Amino acid sequence: MSFWSWSGFFDYLVNPFILGGVVTTIWLTCVSLVFGLFLGFVVALMRRSKLRPIRSAGWFYVWIFRGTPLLVQLIVIYTALPQLGIRFSVVEAALIGLALNEAAYLAEIIRAGIEAVPEGQSRAARALGMTERQIMRHIVMPQAFKVIIPPLGNSVNGLLKTTSVTSVISMEELLRRTQVLIQEKFMVLELFTVAAIYYLLLTTIWDFIQRRIEKRFGQSTAPVKLAEQR
User: Fold this and answer.
1) Among 25, 48, 105, 158, which lies 20 to 30 A Cα-Cα from 70?
2) What does the alpha-carbon distance between residue 30 and residue 23 come to, in Å, rounded to a whole number?
3) pTM for this structure?
4) CB under 8 Å to 174, separation ≥6 — which residues?
5) Following DSSP, what letter does each residue of the chain receive, concatenated?
6) pLDDT tens digit string along 48-62?
């Protein structure tokens, strides 16, 4: 009795059902990242607020979502909230869970990038009459972006793989569709190998993109001259 089927392996490597799961994993990652970045930026600003209640709320958000497993968060969103009358579809629950969880990590990355910019530059900009919004847009963020890019890229890499956790609430991404086929075909090793290959392919492609982004913005983003922003 053979424990490996090469024909089954190659068939499932190009199986439309599996490829559909790959596409779902990609868009799930992209949408979660967009919302995670937006919310993460807001939380990062809250963490730097001069008002203690707002600063504390930002700290509490990061503490909760970084301190509890994503698996638990997804189960709470999908199965516990309906008991309170708040219902989400599988797709909505997956996106909300991933975005909220990712935002907590991105908030700390963004905050660290902002705090890496010398405070003296912001004080000088205020002395020139620039508003806080102008300082953030023209002085702080262009420089903080260079610091943010590497850890942000690593977060995207991790998010690509973390989407597999949403299979617990029946989100039909790559892992979930792999499990469905395993239950039907009983080709455990072959199908999990196929899934692993696609995850490896996706993270490798992103690694290439990340290196290009780091090379492009890490070298070309220059400090902004305050005199030009008056």
Assistant:
1) 48
2) 11
3) 0.86
4) 18, 21, 22, 24, 25, 163, 164, 195, 198, 199
5) --S--HHHHHHHHT-HHHHHHHHHHHHHHHHHHHHHHHHHHHHHHHHT-SSHHHHHHHHHHHHHHHHS-HHHHHHIIIIIGGGGT----HHHHHHHHHHHHHHHHHHHHHHHHHHTS-HHHHHHHHHTT--HHHIIIIIIHHHHHHHHHHHHHHHHHHHHHHGGGGGGGT--SHHHHHHHHHHHH--HHHHHHHHHHHHHHHHHHHHHHHHHHHHHHHHH--PPPGGGG-
6) 898 999 999 999 999
Give the whole-angstrom CA distance, residue 194 versus residue 190: 6
Least confident range of 87-91, 114-118, 189-193: 114-118
Q: Give the confidence band of 75 by pLDDT, cuts at 50, 70, 90.
A: very high
Task: Report the 10 Å Cβ neighbour count for 201.
Answer: 11
